[in-house]
Amino acid sequence: MDDRLPTATVRTQVTVPLRFPDGYVTTARVYSFHGLVDDREHLAFGLGDRAAGDRPDADLPPPLVRPHSECLTGDVFGSQRCDCGPQLREAVERIAEAGGYLLYLRQEGRGIGLYAKLDAYALQDGGLDTYEANVALGRGADERDYTVAAQMLAALGVSRVTLLSNNPDKADQLDRLGVAVVDRMLTGVHLSPTNAAYLAAKVTRADHALDLPFVP
Which residues does 59 contact at the CB level (< 8 Å), separation at least 6? Predict the structure, then answer.
């Protein structure tokens, strides 16, 4: 880990049974933290062999880790404008099978917040893509900072990970923050008629590794 990274510590850990609307069930060890640099209430979900919370992570293979940015509309209400909800559901099952952590990061709308994200939706309805809309609001195209993700992993004793993500920026930031990304696994393509333009923008604007039939 980067020696300059502010130290965070585990605040609370508790076992939580999870059940998804499609009937999938699993158990997670949910961690909260002291000392995260942005003072937000981010959570880590230990899944699979990390759900017990009774073995030092150093004794286990590098965990499968997904930093998942909160999306209230997609994660909770099933919005079809994005692929966040299906990615979250997929990630929990895959991490439970492989053993690792889902980091649930409170950075809605690629870091601009929930209300601003809805403002961006209105601009998208006028023809802008998801990145252009953020910029038109005077914000960054993607303001997410994964320093807290690195802090959380350090607090859990994790310095090497297999990253579950299509987003190269996540791997680049974690590497710069001292988390060794030893391998990268891609999530599935959760394409629908209402999120096709959104997914295409992720490929063309931010180099996400998504195999879309309509994007060369």
Answer: none
Return the H-helix or E-strand segment holding 104. Answer: strand 100-105
Residue 212 has pLDDT above 70, yes or no: yes
Of 56, 48, 59, the closest CA to residue 102 belongs to: 48
What's this model's pTM, rounded to 2 decimal places? 0.93
Q: Which of 75, 144, 160, 169 is catalytic?
A: 144
Spatial neighbors of 128 by CB under 8 A, at least 6 apart, are 136
- Beta strands across the sheet bearing 180-185: 9-19, 25-34, 43-47, 100-105, 64-69, 160-164, 180-185
Q: Which among 29, 125, 142, 205 is annotated as catalytic?
A: 142
Per-residue pLDDT reduced to its tens digit, 96-155: 999 999 999 999 999 999 999 999 999 999 999 999 999 999 999 999 999 999 999 999
Domains and CATH numbers, the chain: 9-107+144-187 (3.40.50.10990)
Residue matched to tokens 């499968």? 64
Q: Is 160 a catalytic residue?
A: no
Contact 74, 114 (CB under 8 A): no
Annotated binding-site residue numbers: 66-71, 82, 84, 87, 108-110, 130, 165, 170
* AA letter at 36: L
Binding-site residue set for Zn(2+): 71, 82, 84
Cα torsion 154, 15, 85, 70: sign: negative
Owner of token pair 């209430």: 41
Q: Annotated catalytic, 142?
A: yes
